[in-house]
Amino acid sequence: MRHEVKFTGFGGQGIILSAVIVGRAATMYDGKHAVQSQSYGPEARGGASSSTVIISDEPIQYPKVLEPTIYVIMSEAGFLKFGAGASPEAVMLIDSGLVQSRPECRCIEIPATMKAKDILGKPIFANIIMLGALVAATGIVSEEAMQKAVLDSVPKGTEDLNMKALRLGIEIASNGGE
Q1: pTM of the model
Q2: Where is the Pyruvate/ketoisovalerate oxidoreductase catalytic domain (predicted)?
Q3: Alpha-carbon distances, residue 89 vs 47, 86, 98, 103, 148 (angstroms)
């Protein structure tokens, strides 16, 4: 098993943190191998941001993503830059309120930012909703591993809301999205 995952959006959405959490879930709690990398524009918030993680049952010899098998896209600019050329075999999770374009591959629409605002009160939880959807849609890591990795990674005092966000993403994706 080997998955190459590309996360993209804009600065401030937790794109890099998302890949770090997935890598942590894979290595620390699911006994898999993972390598993570990132890139972002010079702007602290609002600029382009992307991050990748490779997860494998075997040691990873080459740490660059060559052909993502899974995409998590949280902005239209991210889709246009990284997702528009996705292979037809890929799986793409998109934040349906922020991404207007649709790919040729399997697409799962997750209204993450809208649900984060409406249900949790803050859009900052959208990335954790997307992580829950990622787990439910792909099984790339176990739900238990993701829960532990999220709890390890979020600021103290936000654990309950982050767990609600994770469960919400799992529920939305389990129901086919939207």
Answers
A1: 0.93
A2: 11-171
A3: 29, 8, 23, 11, 30
